[in-house]
What does this fold into?
Amino acid sequence: MTKLSLKILVTTFFFGKIMKRLDLHPAHRLFFTFFFLCLFPFIKNIEIIAIYSSLLFLLNTTTFFNHTFKAFLFALPYFFLNFFWTGQDYSISIANFFRIFFLCLVSFSSLGLEEIEKIFLYLMQRKIIPIEIGYAILSGLNSLQDLKQHFFRVRACAKMRKKRPSPLFLLFPVLVYSLSKAQIMAFSMKSKGINSQKIFYFDYLPTKKQNKSCLVFLSFILIIECGRRFLHLYHGTL
Amino acid sequence: MILRPFSFSFPSSSFSLSLKTEIPLTHSWYEIKSLSGKGKSTFLKLLMGAHPDFISGNLEGDPSLVSKKESFLYLSQNPFHQIIHTKTKEEFVFPFENFQIRPNIISSHLSSLPKNLSDKKTLHLSHGECQHLLLRSLLPLSPKILFLDEPFSYLDEKTRDSFYTLLLELQKNLSLLVFFIDHTQKLSSLSEKTLFIDNNSVISLYKKEDHKEEFTNLKKELPEIPFVKDFFELRVKNLSFGISSKKEETLLVKNLSFSLHSGQCYTIFAPNGSGKTTFLKRLFQNTFDSSHVFFLKNNKILKNPTSSIGICFQDLDSHFLYPDLFSELKSFNLTLEEIEKYLHLLDIPFSNISPFLLSEGQKRRLSLFYPLWAHRPILLFDEITVGQDPANFSFMKELIGHLKKHQYLILLVSHDKTFFEDISDNVLFW
It folds into this structure.
């Protein structure tokens, strides 16, 4: 266990420091997240996931503790389930706990880090998704923060009226607000002339540097994986 | 272009809007006028062809002036809902991109965007800044038809003047067809014709000089309100605050100090985006450091001030909890008689419609009474005059005076000098 923790710490620090300097395009980052999450069931060693999650941490250290705590809370019940009810070996429970922990960590951190707006604009610029649909989703996603603020305002007004309704009840005015907002937004987009021939003033496609960073990142992962396999083969433990 | 006869009604209310005779339209500026709640905004939306995709109701005839290929621009009453992007610069260039304007022209327009606006996230923009941003991004496109629904309502005086000059230039240089609703009366001088919606919601066209306003002399009775027995005081000492961080460069207000007490009304008069609404919101939530901001009740520090503060937010839909007007008002323990009396006073028809379907002006008048019905002696009012016709405007003025006499402590945010100059004891500039 100590050896494993040490490995994770070293890789986190070392690769995190290097990767922080890489300027990955949000779409590439999303691709890697999906790639790792899809690979997750097939990876026996968790270092590789640890490296990726370390990268996500170090890209935005402020969310580090928040996401770590959340991931820990999600993984803990799984550990107890394994430990008390399956009669498995203690080390297997720990290993499974770390798997779930890193899976949650990768999901949460990438969700917190991803610039969804840029990804959608990139997909629209590449004409992967139609402009009308892309902007409809984008405006919906961008409104979530406003809806959250509206919920707090509604709650504050309810308190002013000495009412303490359940959050479920407060969702009704928020739903009405979101419907009216959606209507005005859609009409506004129409009046602003949204069409499929739209041009893009800002470039959302990956730059040469970002493409290089993507290759460097991929190479790192491959080198680590190949190196690990080579070392295990050398020691005859693979 | 001809505006053809039509009639429109909402399915769940007795409201109906109609035009009986054809109106030939020339490239000119038309002001849409009526009492608040008579369907000005609905009429504007019908002209834009919003029915049936964006407003539902029963429509006979075709009032739409916009064909599918025609370019038109629209500024909504609630500018915040028109924002799509999270970054101001992206929001600004969005209409330019749609009309495939050349990047060098976009760059020149983008460079004219004030730095304090272009650096902000759209979520942090105030209503006035949203209006400013939208006007700046829409007007340079010089569309054939322009629909403006209260375009100056949240703007500060300086910005209002600059956009007025811009519109004046547009009027001189381009032959536009413009329909506008403007309670600030700043734009009135630009139009020669008025589309007037009468009390029966029938639309007719007048020339400005022929049309005499019918609603300026309507006098209303003031409601009975309880007298505040306790003496309240608000003290602010060396207060500095920003939107989200405490960094020196992001502070909106530095070293603010003032005090006001029961029976007084103060107005905050400051440019757009200077933190007026944030200040009111934080006062209401009591999130300021108690060493800088504190309330006194009978000369003793008030431990839980939130239970004494009432607010009328800029975002009106935040006030409503129930799907129908009667349940909404009954929740304040008002009797049916009282409900009828208040609705009459507020020019809201006595029917059980949803409060969310009221006009902006009606919603604002209704939500103005919420803190009073909740028996709050400290009142925070944010831009309460937006969307009010002259009769209701003077009613609000009288109401504030009435509240002062009844020893309420009032803090207002307003851009309308004609409103607060007579009623305010002091004006806070920052």
